[in-house]
Design goal:
Two copies of one chain form a homodimer. The first copy, chain A, is globular. The first copy, chain A, is built from eleven helices and 16 strands. In chain A, strand 9 and strand 10 form a beta hairpin. Chain A folds into two domains: 146 residues, translation initiation factor eif-2b, domain 1 (Four Helix Bundle (Hemerythrin (Met), subunit A)), CATH 1.20.120.420; 204 residues, Translation initiation factor eif-2b, domain 2 (Rossmann fold). The relative contact order of chain A is 0.11. Chain A has a seven-stranded mixed beta sheet. In chain A, strands 2-1-3-4 form a four-stranded antiparallel beta sheet. By secondary structure, chain A is α/β, with parallel strands linked by helices. At the A-B interface, helix 7, strand 7, helix 8, helix 9 and strand 13 of A face helix 7, strand 7, helix 8, helix 9 and strand 13 of B. Strand 13 of chain A pairs parallel with strand 7 of chain B, so a sheet runs across the interface.
């Protein structure tokens, strides 16, 4: 599998799980630079606060779970680099680094969650070596938990799939967005691992093209049969009987199951219903926001029109023309066949069943 | 208005209507190079078969009615250029040119219709000068008829509009797709001319972005309030109550009213139905192909995957990844509120009413 986020030791060992061994040597945060995909696969190694801040800000690493993992491992790298043997100095360094990284993407909930875990972990440790150890262990545990979450979603989701099925997905909720198998793509990876022949259609997902740049790339790298289509070809592909199931990720899910995800998801859900194709959302339980009764309460971020006008490298609309560029939309629960979580698949009635499974 | 297709005399006179005067001098087919919009407004002048073939193939000129006009005027230009004084030679040149141009785009029925008119016009003419004249006159009549057709569609369509309404359109069935006001955009131009305040949402229409590059450009040039959105934002814009009506063009309409149009149209029709928004097709009667019982018989042109991978100027999908790139889709008649033609608006039951209005 890809290693979108990992720890690399000074000996070049790629690590995603904490062991006593790696504790004896230096190391850095290692990321795939996703801004260069699909043209180049370049890994960057980072151990300086501002460089890590910049990597998150510039979307070198993206996808809410991946950002959380990267920030946590990043703090461990910055502290490990320090020559200080004073636990108080190192603790302070961990805290200021975490606070700085928290400013990189102000809306990413997983980022704050991961950085809080890091800050909590170092409180009260008075030994510098132990502090370095604890930090690395905590960071790699966050990564490890994320990997376990992906695999669990994959296992539950794979039960929905049969040999020779074709899945359509939108945007990128794959390995590149998480520590490992992704959310929406994890069922595909797990089913493929189990010997099933699963094909994928990947909507290119304008304006930032995460579907064609990232999803198509990572599935292709993994040897999964993937076909990219423009967003406006989804209906035709469905009409031709080429899609058995839709699986997408989510950015936020309300208490009634309404799910916010990348712009275009809502339209795909309507088209799936029209063609009698089951539409699934795959997301960890940390995506649920039970304080929101319905999707109507989820604010829709509006982004700069130049993403549409100039996002592809050349001018694709007149510079002076109005652009409407909502980044997300909300799919109402009645269009959703089920929500695949690491604790199982939630089905209608959603409000009741979400409460049941999430406690 | 714009002159997407015209005749330019050797003296630089732009002509859209045949007169005896222009018959005395040489001339060429003049086209806006639509591949360069919205960055540059460049006109090209052509009088060689392969250059005209290439211009249609490469979408320098596109839009079914404009292609028909361009091909007809193109044949006139090629024949006019020939030094031969032998009517039989010129007639043969007209026929081989027409046959070659007919191979440039497989779906556009107007192309075949216009070229048949051209071939019919030259049959039995034994005088070279008369043949040249007849060809130019026939070609410019096709353009002239097209302009009249656009205006008539606009007048019928404008009756559907009220002040402050917003129309969503897909691709470009505007001035740039025809000789003049367009088909889908003609009601907007006519209503605006009549003093109504009509707003337009223009789907950008991947992969070739005719909606953002062309529709947004020409409406903006004409002073109409236009907003560009990515194709995957249509559902969200409809959900927000921002769209009162959809009007699109058509490339071919079957006897039962099923309408082939630019890829994505079928999806827009489904989304319109879901949101209870009336979906209209605007097209001249030359678009109807009564030899086809239903849309199932309309062949769908498949285009090169590199339009999707590389169409925007930089690589937007891995070079080696599969791409499915159908250029058209077919909207079934049950999703269509009406077909706006130059003879009136046709409504369900379509098969019966199409026969009635088209004879």
């Amino acid at each position: 599998m890809l290693d979108p986020v990992s720890w690399i030791t000074e000996n070049g060992q790629i690590v995603r799980e904490y062991t006593k061994e790696i504790d004896t040597c230096q190391g850095k945060l290692r990321l795939i630079d996703q801004t260069l995909l699909p043209e180049k696969l370049v890994y960057v190694e980072l151990d300086e606060t501002e460089a890590i801040f910049d990597a998150i800000k510039r979307l070198v690493v993206r996808g809410a779970p991946a950002i959380g993992c990267a920030a946590a491992v990043g703090v461990a790298a910055v502290v490990r680099k320090s020559a200080s043997q004073d636990a108080a100095v190192l603790r302070q360094l961990a805290i200021t680094t975490a606070d700085r990284l928290a400013e990189s993407r102000p809306t990413a909930v997983n980022l704050f969650w991961a950085l809080k875990k890091i800050k909590d972990a170092v409180s009260g440790i008075d030994n510098a070596a132990e502090l370095r150890s604890t930090l690395l262990q905590t960071a790699l545990n966050i990564l490890d938990e994320d990997i376990a979450m992906c695999r669990a979603i994959g296992s539950f989701g794979a039960e929905l799939l049969k040999d020779d099925m074709t899945v359509l997905t939108h945007c990128n909720a794959g390995a590149l967005a998480t520590g490992d198998y992704g959310t929406a793509l994890s069922p595909v990876y797990v089913a493929s691992e189990n010997g099933m022949n699963i094909k994928v259609y990947s909507d290119e997902t304008r304006p930032l093209l995460q579907g064609s740049r990232l999803t198509a790339w990572e599935l292709n790298e993994a040897g999964v049969d993937v076909t990219t289509i423009c967003d406006n070809m989804t209906a035709q592909v469905m009409k031709e009987g080429k899609v058995d199931m839709v699986i997408v990720g989510a950015d936020r899910i309300a208490a009634n199951g309404d799910a916010a995800n990348k712009i275009g998801t809502y339209g795909v859900a309507i088209l799936a219903e029209y063609h009698n194709i089951p539409f699934y959302v795959a997301a960890p339980y940390s995506t649920f926001d039970l304080s929101l009764e319905s999707g109507d309460e989820i604010p829709i971020e509006q982004r700069d029109g130049d993403e549409v006008r100039k996002g592809c490298g050349k001018l694709t609309a007149p510079e002076e023309v109005n652009v409407y560029n909502p980044a997300f939309d909300v799919t109402p629960n009645e269009l959703i066949a089920g929500i695949i979580t690491e604790k199982g698949i939630i089905r209608a009635p959603f409000e009741e069943n979400i409460k049941k499974i999430l406690g």
